[in-house]
Design a protein that fits this description.
This protein is of the alpha/beta class. It has two domains: about 10-225, Alpha-Beta Complex (Spore Coat Polysaccharide Biosynthesis Protein SpsA, Chain A); about 230-325, no CATH class. The protein contains 13 helices and nine strands. Strands 1, 2, 3, 4, 5, 6, 7, 8 and 9 form a nine-stranded mixed β-sheet that branches. Helix 10 (about 255-275) runs antiparallel to helix 11.
């Protein structure tokens, strides 16, 4: 399809202070096969280097926007989706990730050929800080999110894909922008904004399309949002699971929803323990046990949370150091 007739895809690159990776992220879109893109670099009041990198490409498709105040991860993305972009389709590229040249050219036909498809997605590689593909982590990631057993092609409805988090919204998806109810996108979702966007796409009643190729590269490093327990991310997942639990049509998935909600309570409890908030952590651990049952992991966490003073937090940090080694 000629670039002049191809629909515009707005690529949102929300950034703060990761200039080392930002240049590679932008370059992977600029050099992509699909040419009709609007590359929105949404700078959340970060370093002036971000502007310098965006303008250094001298590419008219790149739009640099600097927020007047620091909005945070979710609100920065939401602001871009609602107010800054103009494409018929949107795609998210994290500022530390990269696309393969064929990412959009291979996914776009599946949303263009079927007006009932709201979202198309692929699998992705995992790369290290230097951009080297880690095949062991990549294969493990594919299995973890069950993309190894996910059928290629159309899924309608795709609630199971959402619950199992098979859809990498922030790593490897393109979404029909006009189908999403942007009014129902709370900033409280925090770093779980991408799962919430998947929920809004699923709620349209339209289909998703899975292409089982690795067309993007997710960078795993110490500063990536999924590398550590997240306060706002866990809270955002509670918000999502509350919606899913209230849907009678998802009764068949309720046990899995409960299990994943319990895992979020555990993640948040561990965050609270490290922050010295053991009393709050115990509440979330009780919720985790109620939803998942007593497991060695949440049982140990509860025991640590009951230790006096900062003993529990110190023990947790020690256990994590040992595990990393």
């Amino acid at each position: 399809m000629p670039a002049s007739s191809a629909p515009l895809v707005s690529v949102v690159i929300a950034t703060y202070n990761r200039p080392v990776y930002l240049r590679s992220a932008i370059a992977s879109v600029v050099n992509g096969e699909y040419r009709n893109v609007e590359i929105m670099v949404a700078d959340d009041l970060g370093s002036d280097v971000n502007r310098e990198i965006a303008t250094s490409f001298a590419d008219r498709r790149i739009v640099y926007h600097r927020n007047e105040t620091n909005l945070g991860m979710a609100a920065n993305h939401i602001h871009a989706f609602r107010d800054l972009v103009s494409g018929e389709f949107i795609a998210i590229l994290n500022d530390d990730d990269e696309w393969e040249p064929a990412f959009l050219s291979k996914l776009m036909p599946h949303v263009l050929d079927n007006r009932d498809v709201v979202l198309a997605f692929s699998d992705h590689y995992v790369i290290d800080e230097r951009g080297r593909i880690d095949l062991v982590m990549t294969e493990g990631n594919t299995r973890r999110w069950r993309r190894d057993v996910l059928s290629p092609g159309l899924h309608l409805p795709f609630w199971r894909c959402l619950v199992e988090m098979s859809i990498p919204v922030a790593q490897a998806s393109v979404i029909r922008r006009g189908a999403i109810d942007w009014r129902d996108f709370p900033a409280e979702t925090g770093s779980a904004y991408d799962q919430w966007l998947g929920y809004l796409a699923c709620r349209t009643g339209m289909a998703c399309y899975y292409l089982p190729e690795r067309l993007t590269k997710y960078r795993a490093h110490g500063g990536s949002s999924t590398q550590s327990a997240s306060d706002e991310g866990s809270l955002g997942m509670f918000l999502l699971y509350a919606r899913l639990m209230a849907m009678p049509e998802l009764a068949a998935l309720r046990s899995e929803i409960d299990a994943r909600c319990g895992a979020s309570h555990l993640t948040y409890a561990l965050f609270l323990m490290q922050a010295g908030r053991a009393r709050e952590a115990r509440k979330h651990l009780r919720d985790a046990i109620a939803l998942k049952g007593l497991t060695p992991r949440n049982g140990l966490a509860f025991a640590l949370a009951c230790l006096p003073g900062t003993l529990g937090a110190r023990a947790l940090r020690t256990l994590r150091r040992v595990r990393r080694r």
